[in-house]
Amino acid sequence: MTVLITGATAGIGAACARRFALHGARLVLVGRRAHRLDTLAHELGKLVPIHTLELDIRNRSAVQQELAELPAEFATLDVLVNNAGIALGLEPAQRSDLDDWVATVETNIMGLLYCTHAILPGMVARNKGHIINLGSVAGSYPYPGGHVYCGTKAFVHQFSLAMRADLLGTKVHVTSIEPGKVQSELAQVRFKGNAARAAAVYADTEPMTPDDIADVIHWCVTRPAHANINSIELMPVDQAFNPLAVHRARI
Prior knowledge:
It is a single chain. The chain is of the alpha/beta class. It has one domain (2-234): NAD(P)-binding Rossmann-like Domain (Rossmann fold, 3-Layer(aba) Sandwich). Helices cover 44% and strands 15% of the residues. It contains nine helices and seven strands. The chain has helices at 11-22, 34-44, 60-68, 72-75, 98-126, 147-166, 186-190, 195-202, 210-221, and strands at 2-6, 26-31, 50-54, 79-82, 129-134, 172-179, 231-234. It has a seven-stranded parallel beta sheet with strand order 3-2-1-4-5-6-7, with helices on both faces. Helix 1 links the parallel strand 1 and strand 2 (26-31). It is globular. The termini are far apart. The mean pLDDT is 95.
């Protein structure tokens, strides 16, 4: 099995790399931080063949070129894990930075599309493959300040289901993985390095770990070939649903 993982340098991506390596998969690791890619490749290269790509998935032409020119040993991709994603800011929509909105859409939607478009035709031609898209419970349950991030994850869910409809009659699988609170670098990115605000997200709770999500992803990929897991939504037991908010004006 050959697995390409985007956003492989931290969090769920790195956990997926370790999980698949333990089970003998060849890995194509994609990320923007070369030093982290090198460190991960050094660690996992003792177990399996590794190819790294220092690549910003928002760069359409670079994605197309790099994925078209993979070394022969890694060119036949069995699994694509579209993991790379960001969340920026938690201000109300009316006070948000437009650049944050654009960066979120370019990463969570356009980057996912560029990678999928480059890899899916080969899977269809071979009549074999599995695309894992990282969504979020935010795609189903909005929250204040979520606006664009929630929208991008709703896109991931619906795009995954619609792609499965297109792939009917093939042996290509598509799964949307939709976690709740996972302790990772996402909070630090969202708050632009503010460690105190990031830590507050997880304070006095037991969130899921990247390893938890990697375990679920590996399970989906290793189901019998005749079964497709459409989507999985999972949360820590410390997280649940709130009643709808109601604003009561004082008269």
